[in-house]
Amino acid sequence: MNILKLGIPKGSLEKATIELFEKSGWRIKLSSRNYFPEVDDLELSCSICRPQEMSSYVEKEVLDAGITGKDWTLENESDIVVVADLIYSKVSKRPTRWVLAVPGDSKIQRLEDLEGKKIATELVGYTRKFFAQKGINVEISFSWGATEAKVVSGLADAIVEVTETESTIRAHGLRIIHELMTSNTQFIASKAAWADPWKREKIENIALLLQGALRADKIVGLKMNVPQTHLDQVISILPSMNGPTVSPLYHSEWFSVETVISEHEVRDLIPKLLKNGAEGIIEYSLNKVI
Amino acid sequence: MNILKLGIPKGSLEKATIELFEKSGWRIKLSSRNYFPEVDDLELSCSICRPQEMSSYVEKEVLDAGITGKDWTLENESDIVVVADLIYSKVSKRPTRWVLAVPGDSKIQRLEDLEGKKIATELVGYTRKFFAQKGINVEISFSWGATEAKVVSGLADAIVEVTETESTIRAHGLRIIHELMTSNTQFIASKAAWADPWKREKIENIALLLQGALRADKIVGLKMNVPQTHLDQVISILPSMNGPTVSPLYHSEWFSVETVISEHEVRDLIPKLLKNGAEGIIEYSLNKVI
Amino acid sequence: MNILKLGIPKGSLEKATIELFEKSGWRIKLSSRNYFPEVDDLELSCSICRPQEMSSYVEKEVLDAGITGKDWTLENESDIVVVADLIYSKVSKRPTRWVLAVPGDSKIQRLEDLEGKKIATELVGYTRKFFAQKGINVEISFSWGATEAKVVSGLADAIVEVTETESTIRAHGLRIIHELMTSNTQFIASKAAWADPWKREKIENIALLLQGALRADKIVGLKMNVPQTHLDQVISILPSMNGPTVSPLYHSEWFSVETVISEHEVRDLIPKLLKNGAEGIIEYSLNKVI
Amino acid sequence: MNILKLGIPKGSLEKATIELFEKSGWRIKLSSRNYFPEVDDLELSCSICRPQEMSSYVEKEVLDAGITGKDWTLENESDIVVVADLIYSKVSKRPTRWVLAVPGDSKIQRLEDLEGKKIATELVGYTRKFFAQKGINVEISFSWGATEAKVVSGLADAIVEVTETESTIRAHGLRIIHELMTSNTQFIASKAAWADPWKREKIENIALLLQGALRADKIVGLKMNVPQTHLDQVISILPSMNGPTVSPLYHSEWFSVETVISEHEVRDLIPKLLKNGAEGIIEYSLNKVI
Amino acid sequence: MNILKLGIPKGSLEKATIELFEKSGWRIKLSSRNYFPEVDDLELSCSICRPQEMSSYVEKEVLDAGITGKDWTLENESDIVVVADLIYSKVSKRPTRWVLAVPGDSKIQRLEDLEGKKIATELVGYTRKFFAQKGINVEISFSWGATEAKVVSGLADAIVEVTETESTIRAHGLRIIHELMTSNTQFIASKAAWADPWKREKIENIALLLQGALRADKIVGLKMNVPQTHLDQVISILPSMNGPTVSPLYHSEWFSVETVISEHEVRDLIPKLLKNGAEGIIEYSLNKVI
Amino acid sequence: MNILKLGIPKGSLEKATIELFEKSGWRIKLSSRNYFPEVDDLELSCSICRPQEMSSYVEKEVLDAGITGKDWTLENESDIVVVADLIYSKVSKRPTRWVLAVPGDSKIQRLEDLEGKKIATELVGYTRKFFAQKGINVEISFSWGATEAKVVSGLADAIVEVTETESTIRAHGLRIIHELMTSNTQFIASKAAWADPWKREKIENIALLLQGALRADKIVGLKMNVPQTHLDQVISILPSMNGPTVSPLYHSEWFSVETVISEHEVRDLIPKLLKNGAEGIIEYSLNKVI
């Protein structure tokens, strides 16, 4: 039987990933002491894996596919296929950014001022390539967390660190002088798995449902009754996401109009719909939008 | 750009109000130390304000509109526009009532027996007017909470106090002899804002969505298939809230019938629908019902 | 006025039963000190009752109907009507089983080896009958919980005990050699209530809604747009649970197709629907499916 | 090696018993699935056992000693040795009582009125003996909990039930007409264990430390300096629990006086001590008082 | 029988006050719906009362004594006896302060700049008197909480508000230009109660024990053995709080030295004691230090 | 002013370290976003640092002293001074061990069988040296957590991993074939700080108090009265930790005997003391034992 080997990211992405799979139709059951969670699909075998190592494992075909951050795939320079970007909108509104920061009172103002300086970071490879391309000589050392402290202690002149809200950076009195990369979660696959028809179809189907479930977080169903005389008018103000479903009502000059729209548009749209003759408007939640 | 200044009530109504706005389409983000919460609508600016002071602020146009209790608007005798009553059904089944209570063993039986007596209350103005209209002379003093204790301690002969379940009143051995007012939450606006076309439309649109979200708490969607022969029969037993949506099915003598009804009617209606020929009945939840 | 006396099971089934009734349309309000909870239906009167005693109370007509486990009805040999099996799928995936277990190092391998041995169990009657039918002489004693400990202490040679996951049995080093019965929750009624037309109709209506709510846990609504050219193809791959609702769209060669299907089929069905020409697929949750 | 087999009560006494042993010097470690907890004393082997069955197990020498309620020892008429009464003062101020209760509107006023009536109880044996001694004929049936409900449903005329605060009894509208027994926790031993010198000494040592730890909950240490001139005066007002420890101070006419007293006496004693010349009074907590 | 009527402050001081009384020897049992808590002393009767109203009630002899903030006693200009200052050190390290604050960008720099300006505060009386004494004319209005918002909204030019950490003040961008008062918790009594010998003694005894319990939070017991040759040396470096208790040891040239000292001195003192010849040093906690 | 730079370990040791310092007399206040916590001693400056990096920082004199695990000091081969072993007895009874484990069904039985095999570990340096000394050639790769999974996936033949209870190792079906090291928490200092008289004294004083607080976890105070006739007898059975404090009592032939002993000896000692004539025995807790 065909099996797809799938990597689930350990750490900050873990809970959101399990919940997304649940909403998409797969139940993944973690055990606190085992890195191979159960999943209710005989064609899948799951492994828990650190995001930092995921793309290497996929590249070496230890895993066929996995969920990880774009940053670590770039750091590892892994030769893999990016199947889909997964924007976990509920976790945070701001993207994950890797920035270069210096002490607030440092004389360093621009990247060029870093010539000959020491930089501490967990993202050694990417940072090295970044400065090499700019022709700036820097000494880069690996830091295993608590990176902000290193620049405060004087062990480094600058750091390259990940941040969403900049609060840790500001709490240490650091100043950001450059953004090296923004990152987001991705669904990736190995080239071999992508070339295998059965695996590719399985991967594409999973991607389809993951994206359908993510989309449903921000979209709602809307249904209303509209008289024939106002039908064109109402349809013309509906956002054009998918064309609306319009059904004639029985023994009547009225039509049922149903559509899906972004949740944040509803508050502006409903007053307009009423003005244009719609009645009996209801809104309902969705699980998936394909 | 036009801005509507909106007051959010502090205290017992605060959480329910924030949740209602969320369901209606606006996210209001409180900060524990700031009275000016963020809202995701550039046309709105929010302030946290005590319900007791809300109507005065609206009257003086410090705020254009606000959410508060009817009781405090009456207490302040504020000259404002009541845009909508908002019945927060989930918080409590019983209305908020202001009652006059005396010690269980007091000789006071009727309002007239209060002639010359001392009354403690937080609702000084309304109570004073109430007794003045009845021509009964009473001495009214302001009480800052723990009002029940004052009549037990002998500092007052009676109190006028707010209650939902009467449990605090009974726990102090008091007896209610009159109900002065029932209150509920209201959406209010200043006369000036109501006269300004842009502000009035903004206020009306907010009211429309707040009421649509409140209504959806108690209403569900119901959908079923009905053969043509039983269509009139089924339609006749559906509650007439909005007329049902009836759509002919493809290549068939059957129709799809869809309607919205009060959740508490469903358990009685479903057996009747089955008896009258409906099939494939499903019920689903709603977010808004306009 | 007619009243149906309904028994609610105390203990492990209590919470799930109350929630199921809530979803079905009845609010049952427990009080921590009273065995007669309130219910928002004047035709019902509820009592809390141990599952072990439920069927006897129904048989003696102290109650008209009740929720209990099949195991205790069989233990009591109660002469009642089984109205419906209620499979509470969310509580546990595995059925409740009564098994015969012996110490891991016991010489007992088969039921026959129990001849003349001592068995401890809470299910005395059923176990006695079971062995009598097989012609095996055993000495059965009643055990009030902590039954596993009795065989470990040497007070019994074997136990008959209830289990879902076998974890307690394994933790005491016991070995299962026979399964006597599997059980599940049932809705039962007395023969007299079933013979009374009003009570029977009330019981059937409750059963209808309880089953409708249980079914909705595992079923979702699915809606899509399909061009006329692919309509037969799409319909042919839809699971045949209820025939789909097909409505022609206005001024168009497209149709709206709507159906309900098992949640676990969705992940396989959606890719097929897309391949066969369906578009704009949405999935939504259901409260009841009749 | 000698081993003492000790029974720990399951249920409401379990947590308080484990904590008391901890304070006395033994750590008992429960496992959620095993009835034989570990203890850090090679001379002890612990078993978890229901209080209802404890005295029978001790009588039959399955256990050498155990902690249980006096009520169940009397119910079982077990022939055992009561080593010590353990009054767990922190759990509840009121003793556990077994009472006879009837519906509030019952005509039964005295025990004699129960002649020929039905009584439901979990304490069948004790209740039977109680009425036999009084020469009153009653029909006693075993009830497995929810006993209050039985008299409300009319299945029994009276109940014999355990209570501390009477709140469940009052919540069902019952009236207490007699108290059959008050109970408390006891440390019991088998006659054989008591006759064995090693076991008896082990049992007595455990009892000594359990009682020392219980006593320390209500007693504190008090220390003060007193001039020789006031020494007799101060000593005369100290409660006489144990004589105080009086030590002369170095190069001085002062003495250090140290004693242990009931915590609730401290607030009245300290002002008196000051008046009588004591100085530098300190109070500290105790773990054990033997 | 003599009874002392004691006021317990509602709100932020409530929990700390109940705990202090518990540690001092009185158990006060609050009921969520009753303002008259139970206390285990027949000579006391407790009432819950807002700190703002406490001193007025004591002055009018509705209460004999009470716990409240010094600020509200000054605000009310109540003619009462301050029995003791109670510094609740564990709640917060910083004292409660009433400060005058203005918007960060206000032109107001000194008190004199407030001439003719509007000030919002809950502390109307004290503030009025303060400015009258300085001969500065200001318009003072009562504010019922959310006072910071008023100056931001432009309803006032400055506020007088209570603060410990200044965090709310800073979160609204305000600037402090003057401190009007620092406050702390006090135990107060009415003049009449103070003149009544029985009441005065009861009040003094309570004050004695409250202060003894507060002191014990910051003080520990220290005990050591010292050879005669080093005794004077060791005693000379002990802090002189109370003279140490020195007892000669039996058949030996050594002495036991025992004292109480501030907890924060211990870490510096112990190394010195060892150097000066002390041995076997132990530290223990105290409940009360009189 | 002299300052000692002290490293506090991040992660699993963090909480226990902060609590130990609190008990020893220093309050360290963590901020969630800053690696430089505040401490109430002007002579100390604290930094949060990963245990893996602590000894390197101390060796390079970025820090003067720190708390870390012995394992990481050995891994880093840091040239530092071990001031004290700190056995945090309450956290876990078992020592931290680094073990070599292989799959349960592996043919590897002894260290020699690893010749030419792949080992994954976080402890690369120590492991490399270990095998080099034994003359066994192995390929060692760094693993960043989830090490057990690597041997299960076939990426390594064996792992060297840290464990206390072996539960994770067993949950992956691994078998331990060798223990490379046991570790515990240590207080370490740099050679330079140790050579500086002021810093050395500060470090020794901190070590003294940390050890005094750790010791007090397992030791209690015991005090009793003994008649002169039994004094030698009682003293002879007291454990000889520190000689007991013996004080003659006033006007009496009795003596007060006070000592400190291991908590786990108390339960055996008290019965013996009573038999030998001691009376009025009390036990109390200690904060520090030097």
Structural notes for this entry:
The structure is a homohexamer of 290-residue chains. Chain A is built from 10 helices and 17 strands. Chain A folds into 3 domains: 4-93 and 185-216, 3-Layer(aba) Sandwich (D-Maltodextrin-Binding Protein, domain 2), CATH 3.40.190.10; 96-182, D-Maltodextrin-Binding Protein, domain 2 (3-Layer(aba) Sandwich); 219-285, Alpha-Beta Plaits (2-Layer Sandwich), CATH 3.30.70. In chain A, strand 8 (118-121), helix 4 and strand 9 (139-142) form a beta-alpha-beta unit. In chain A, the strands form 4 sheets. A 5-stranded mixed sheet of chain A has the order 4-1-5-12-6, sandwiched between helices. Chain A has a 5-stranded mixed sheet with strand order 9-8-10-7-11, with helices on both faces. The first copy, chain A, is globular. Chain A has helices at residues 14-24, 51-59, 70-76, 124-134, 147-153, 167-171, 191-195, 197-216, 231-237, 266-275; strands at residues 4-9, 28-31, 34-39, 44-49, 65-69, 81-86, 96-103, 118-121, 139-142, 158-163, 174-183, 185-189, 219-227, 245-248, 254-262, 279-285, 288-289. In chain A, helix 1 packs across helix 8 (197-216). With 290 residues, chain A is of the alpha/beta class.
The name of the CATH superfamily of the largest domain in chain A reads Periplasmic binding protein-like II
SS strand fraction of chain A: 25-35%
Query: What is the N-to-C succession of helices and strands of chain A?
Result: EHEEEHEHEEEHEHEHEEHHEHEEHEE
Averaged pLDDT of chain A: 90
Q: Tell me the structural class of chain A.
A: alpha/beta
Biggest interface reads: A-B, 25 and 29 residues
According to CATH, what is the topology of the largest domain in chain A?
D-Maltodextrin-Binding Protein, domain 2
- CATH class value of the largest domain in chain A: Alpha Beta
Largest sheet of chain A: 5 strands, mixed
In DSSP terms, counting alpha (H) and pi (I) runs of 4 or more, how many helices of chain A?
A: 10
Radius of gyration of chain A (CA) equals 25 Å
What level of helicity do the residues of chain A show? 25-40%
In which order are the strands of the major sheet of chain A placed?
Answer: 4-1-5-12-6
Low-confidence stretches of chain A: none
